[in-house]
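Homework help board

Subject: predicted structure for assignment chain

Our instructor gave us this sequence and asked us to write out the predicted structure in token form, then describe one feature. I got the tokens but I'm not sure how to describe them. Can anyone check?
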Amino acid sequence: MYLVCPNCGEETEHEIISYRETKNGKEYILKCKNCGYTYSKIIKDDKMIDIKTITSSKDKSTVQKYTTFEDDILSVGEEIKVNGVNSIITAIDTKEKRVSKAVAKDIKTLWVKRFDKIIIKISVNRGEKTIPSEIVATPDEEFYIGDILDINGAHAVIHKIKTKERFVHRGGAAAREIVRIYAKEIREMRRKY
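My token output:
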């Protein structure tokens, strides 16, 4: 939901922390995603709607609801919180058809994927073999060239990262942007005493 934040004065996206019914509408506890300021605001019921939401997590799907302003515009690829869990919109159905963007009051079903933990695919080079693997990370976790990963009891050093936009050879990227990590296994040297 987009509101003008009383702290930073910007019209920014806000996260709904919680809400309760009052005689004047619903009192929402909101957090500005721009500055992090948390505050309460009473909003009349007729401006808020619940959208049927199908949330998928691995191989399971559950029906939930997402509460937002009726005039809010939602887009595929947008990150939202559904019942306090980070989620990403994967599809939007209106009464007429599937669209990439819609006003909340026109949305029949919102399809989201749980996005609090994501699986990152890794290709580990072991000499002439490349072994596929994966790790679980939070979307904001960062991986850098030169980082050492523990994969199935072996250590590997990251030498390349493929993101949605490009290959990274220096620096790093957040897990949410990573398509695949390329790493080389490190041969452990045993010291003789």
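Reply (TA_rk): Your tokens look well-formed. For the description, you could write something like this. The first strand starts at residue 2 and ends at 4. That's the kind of observation they're looking for.
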